[in-house]
Amino acid sequence: MRTHRISAALALTAAIVLTASACGGGDSGGGGNSSPKTLTYWASNQGSSLENDKQVLEPELKKFEAQTGIKVKLEVIPWSDLLNRILAATASGQGPDVLNIGNTWSASLQATGALLPFDQAAFDKIGGKDRFLESTIASAGAKGKDPAAVPLYSMAYGLYYNKKLFQQAGIANPPATWEELVADGKKLTSGDKYGLAIEGGNVSENVHNVFALGMQHGTGFYDASGKPAFDSPEAVAAVKQYVDFLANDKIAAPGNAEYAANQSVTDFATGKAAMLMWQSAGANLKSHGMNPDDYAVVPVPAPAGATGAKATTSMVAGINMAVFKNTKNLDGALNFVKFMTSDEEQKTLNGTYGSLPPVKAAQSDAAFSTPELQTLAGVLAKSAAPLPQVASESQFETLIGTAVKNLLASAAAGKPVTEATVKDELSKAQQQMPAS
Amino acid sequence: MIDRPTAGQEAAPQGAAPARRRLREKFGRGALPYLLLLPALLAELLIHLVPMVTGIVMAFKQLTQFFIRDWSAAPWSGFDNFEVALEFNAPVGKALLHSFWVTCAFTVLSVGLSWLIGVTASIFTQDAFRGRGLLRAAFMLPYALPVFAAVITWSFMFQRDTGLINHVLHDQLHLTSDKPFWLIGDNSFWALLTVSVWKSWPFAFLTLTAGLQNIPRELYEAAALDGAGVWQQIRRITLPSLRPVNLVLVLVLFLWTFNDFNTPFVLFGKSAPQAADLISIHIYQSSFITWNFGQGSAMSVLLLLFLLLVTAVYLFATNRRRGEAE
């Protein structure tokens, strides 16, 4: 009896280890062309639902099949699963042929060695490197290496502001500097209405915003040799500035600290907040019933007179398309990438999703000349910088995003946020980086 | 297990008998049971032992994203991962220790409350009354709901500005001066505990109700004749009779709660607030979010050792006490 129970307990505990450390070896076989008639494609969730994505993509895949005779098996994967699915595919060697990745993960996934490098020859097969905007190529892998992916959809942050609320508060122009933003924000804050909405519980939103602020303060959170420098004075200043919107300036509602399901977009759309820093929010705002005439978009503020990297107002946001190195249909995979990044498909897909084409020729299409997309395209071309393209990027994103989340949570609970508390959180994040 | 072939013998067709005899001759009488156990052993090996050993091996490797394509090529790191995990002055160890204590407190409270509510409810629904079946079915509802749907509903209710909990506490009952946060900050512990107890007590209720059915009614009748009150009956008859059920129940609840991943993950997402940073989430974050699989494996092994130790001590202690009682 006793041994039975112990072995039952053993089995239970073994299952725990299993779940906690599930990971296997795998062969790292090279690619080839042994299966030229089919492709598997993992698409990220761009539309309003996974079903919506299927409806958008299926007709395009049919077109590709008609042109090439290659049948594409599509799977749309939610963002919450995508990175883990990619990791599992990398570890087991059983993955799709072509896949979408968040562009900020490019260097991290590049480091696994599982993705096909886009060298000169590969680029030639899809129509050349020059077709893409430079900043979007920069977010496709580490500097000095062949990109691990090519850009597919692009986005950038802009400052969305409610024209009506600005008028009511007697503010003539949208803010161009942070001082103006805070001053305007204070005028717009009264009762349960706030000047700015932030998505404080969302780790990615946090890190995107403090990254742009970091660039303005003169840090990319990594030093020149590529080592994490999370708790430098510049980084502390950037993070503190962001947290202060809620902590000291009080232009963001304390409740924002727990927002993680796009509630800040809802708050902006329903007039509970007058400003929002977001990437390509247009389609989202429309679905909440906000009249496009009621808002406008300008670049996120920068310090007055800033130039170069210090004038960064957004990270380069977007989705890249990658090919698994061990694909059994290398030519077909590259053919498919060529198809998806063709001018025609770029117009169709980005037009549907409300994103910007990273392909120059497609971006000049009239469909992308709405004031909102014009502004965001300008940001992408002039004042956007990619998140650090280093192998440890995904750790950076989580650790810094979480540090900001913790700081916002304690500010919301009424605890003071000082330079010391900010530095403390950032040092902790720094020390949690695995040595590599 | 060993009985089964005998049971099958009667039904087996005639032709099967010589084959079995041949088997018996070949392996001898004693080997047959082991031979029949072999498939089960193999399955056990594949399903449990191999991954467990893999996990333990990974704990001694410097396994980051650079090596996940071929983790056997990752450099050995000796006890480095364990040292980092156990260095309680440095951030990683400090965070692990913190999450360990949070998990201990959470588990003790959750198991204790679940058991208390379960035993109370099962005693109160013991005697037949009109609508008992319906009530019991209602009690089982949290157990029957998909965890994800249930917990996501809780997370809506715990929202500070729009959630039901604050609406009742603050707007209607005026119990709090300001709307508290439940999903971030220190209160998150209590939010997590509430959901966990809500989720676990029906299991305790189910198990204990089944256990109660086995207590002969005569015992209560005799006790009542001797003048024992309800409380005395519970203490002298119900609880001691439930003892074997309780031993298993508490152990299972402990292991489930200590390792609960779903509840905090759905409630808080990938990074839980510090006050509610359960060890399962913490290890998940160390392995899958920061891509430090070696470190995560080392933490898992430490957790495994701890749980084995607790289980062994628990079984030893309870078995001995039962021996004394008998």
From TrEMBL, chain A:
Keywords: Signal
Signal peptide bounds: 1-22
Gene3D superfamilies cross-referenced by the UniProt entry: Periplasmic binding protein-like II
Top-level taxon of the source organism: Bacteria
Keyword Ribosomal protein: no
Region of interest: Disordered: 416-436
InterPro entries according to UniProt: Bact_solute-bd_prot1 (IPR050490), SBP (IPR006059)
Entry-linked PANTHER family: ARABINOSE-BINDING PROTEIN-RELATED, DIACETYLCHITOBIOSE BINDING PROTEIN DASA
Protein name: Putative sugar ABC transporter substrate-binding protein
Organism lineage string: Bacteria, Bacillati, Actinomycetota, Actinomycetes, Kitasatosporales
UniProtKB/TrEMBL annotation, chain B:
Name this protein carries in UniProt: Putative sugar ABC transporter permease protein
GO biological process: transmembrane transport
PROSITE patterns in the cross-refs: ABC_TM1 (PS50928)
Pfam families reported for this sequence: BPD_transp_1 (PF00528)
InterPro entries listed in its UniProt record: ABC_transporter_permease, MetI-like, MetI-like_sf
KW Translocase (keyword) present: no
Membrane-spanning segments: 31-60, 100-125, 137-157, 189-212, 241-258, 297-317
Localisation: Cell membrane
Residue ranges constituting the ABC transmembrane type-1 domain according to the UniProt record: 100-314
Entry similarity comment: Belongs to the binding-protein-dependent transport system permease family.
GO CC field: plasma membrane
Keyword tags: Cell membrane, Membrane, Transmembrane, Transmembrane helix, Transport
UniProt xrefs under Gene3D superfamilies: MetI-like
Membrane topology summary: Multi-pass membrane protein
Domain of life: Bacteria
